[in-house]
Amino acid sequence: MNRKTIVFYGGGNMASAIISKMVTSDWSGEDIHVIDRNAEKLERFSKQFGVQVHDKPGSWMAQIDSVVLAVKPQQLPDAIASAKEWMDEALIISIAAGVRIEDLRAMLGQNRICRAMPNTPMKIGKGVCGLYATAEADEDHLFIVKVFAACGDLIWCDKEEMLEGVTAVSGSGPAYVFRFIEALENAGIRYGFNEVQARRLAIATVLGSAELARQSDEPPAELRAKVTSKGGTTYEALKVMQERGFMEMMQDAMDACRRRSAELGEAFHENLESKKD
Description:
By secondary structure, the protein is α/β, with parallel strands linked by helices. The protein has helices at residues 13-22, 39-49, 76-83, 101-108, 141-148, 162-171, 173-190, 195-215, 220-226, 233-243, 246-276; strands at residues 6-9, 32-35, 52-54, 66-69, 91-94, 113-117, 127-133, 152-156.
């Protein structure tokens, strides 16, 4: 692939996580730019990653191949307005949660756009990122993969609305897992282990089980059945989960997350439309 340049508009945690993995792959810091108003952030990006930093957009952006919109959704309209004149020819990648293609198109005046929904384990290269691109960005798929590949698994969505499902399952998913680890850790402490031991028990259990599921050809339901003997200890624990509606509760939780993602997208759209009136 020919050498490409990219700018991250916004230097928040997710931009930092993505860049940290890019510079450990085949990206040169010279080809990565960051725009942020926070001078301390810019200094850290420059020293830690060797990237080029800017406190505002400018005509230099006209030579950039791709722009990653990495500001918060509420900051997006102003950010785009400040740089729009220099982004006409660039591939736009947005990691702004809930902001839909139609609204990005309206703000940008072009349609070469990819939406990305990453999650926080991307910081250690173990994340998953949902992607959806417009037809105008079809030729950019390899470039988009190059940006995110070192961060973890990439899942291409056939429809934009599937990104709301990505948000419900993997975008917010780490919080569900951390909550489960909390439960295991708290139980360990109640059973007499100290905090360090209880946390080791909890994290190692989740890590080992996830890795076994990853390496196995069997679905999780079969793996679960193999460690569940009727009348045994695991059976008793799972019986309580079933009685308390664990699977239904988790589905309800993810449905609520997905619904909220859609609501936020709609609220952003309505706010954008109101400013046109």
